[in-house]
Specification:
It is built from five helices and nine strands, in the order βββββαααβαβαββ. It has helices at 116-129, 132-137, 148-165, 198-204, 222-231, and strands spanning 6-8, 27-29, 52-54, 76-78, 99-101, 187-192, 211-215, 237-241, 264-268. It has a nine-stranded parallel sheet, with no helix packed on it. It is elongated, with a radius of gyration of 19 Å. Pfam families: LRR_14. This is Putative NB-ARC domain-containing protein. It comes from Oryza sativa subsp. indica.
């Protein structure tokens, strides 16, 4: 097992597929592996030489633990098509990361968000039962099931605020503050920035980005978004989405210096007229 450098799985997961004895493995590709759950990932966080990790399409994965920060050699993380709503704070320790693919990509955006009262009621139910629903929802033997700390972090720091603010309706996954420390990032998509401006300020500092996808753009964070995009001169691909009303209306007009090398622009959400600066993009 110690000689294995790359492992790709197809079909149904079995616990013996991954072992901590695979000390020098570089690539793990579990795309669309059925039956893969949270506790099955225990051994992965011990594979310190791992450079490529794909859990794409593993629909039973809805949380990544802080132990993700152990993978200091990781260059590519792909969790598209999972139900992971937020990356752990330890992601900012992975200074060699170049490609982060996250979120559940879809061409559909919600036309309306739930009322504030309904969101508070749902969030209140979650808070009242604390981590219990989460522990029920993630299978595994009691000694390997979700830790209390990870459960609390997810329920109280991710699920509860996302329900209250309505950002759970947005496509994309939330990332922690400090993502600017990942200076080698080439690709970052799709990030849910609907909860505030801090992450957009971080993205502004990632001047090496070539591909970016953001969700949750609105009038409150519109200025931070404009400043971020204007600072990303190497950007070649940009995807922007916003759920509910007014959607993208009035959120794109004030970008003073759009990336000159932009070749792909995808807009999802309510939008009446295209911003004027698009006409000046020669490579689009």
């Amino acid at each position: 097992l110690s000689q294995i450098r790359s492992l790709s799985l197809f079909g149904h997961w079995e616990p013996f597929f991954v072992s901590s004895k695979m000390k020098f493995i570089r690539v793990l590709d579990f795309e669309r592996t059925r039956g893969l759950k949270y506790h099955h990932l225990d051994q992965i966080w011990k594979l310190f030489h791992l450079k490529f990790l794909s859990l794409r399409g593993c629909i039973d994965i809805d949380l990544l633990p802080d132990l993700l920060g152990n993978l200091r050699q990781l260059q590519m993380l792909d969790i598209r098509g999972t139900y992971v709503k937020a990356l752990p704070k330890t992601i900012i320790k992975l200074k060699k990361l170049q490609y982060i693919h996250i979120g559940r990509k879809t061409d559909y955006v919600w036309e309306e968000k739930d009322s504030l009262m309904k969101r508070y009621c749902v969030a209140g139910c979650l808070c009242a039962t604390c981590c219990l629903p989460l522990l029920w929802g993630i299978d595994g033997p009691p000694h390997k099931a979700l830790t209390r700390r990870d459960a609390w972090t997810f329920a109280c720091c991710v699920k509860f605020p996302s329900l209250v603010t309505g950002v759970h309706k947005e496509n994309g996954t939330m990332v922690p503050k400090g993502i600017r420390k990942l200076k080698d990032l080439h690709t970052l998509r799709d990030v849910n920035v609907g909860s505030g401006n801090a992450v957009l300020r971080d993205i502004r500092m990632l001047t090496g980005l070539h591909k970016l996808g953001v969700a949750g753009i609105n009038k409150k964070n519109g200025r931070a978004f404009h400043l971020a995009i204007s600072n990303l001169s190497k950007l070649e691909s940009l995807s922007v989405s916003s759920a509910g009303m007014p959607g993208l209306c009035g959120c794109l007009d004030d970008i003073s210096s759009p990336p000159e090398n932009l070749q792909s622009l995808k807009l999802y959400g309510n939008l009446i007229t295209l911003p004027g600066w698009i006409k000046g993009l020669q490579h689009l």
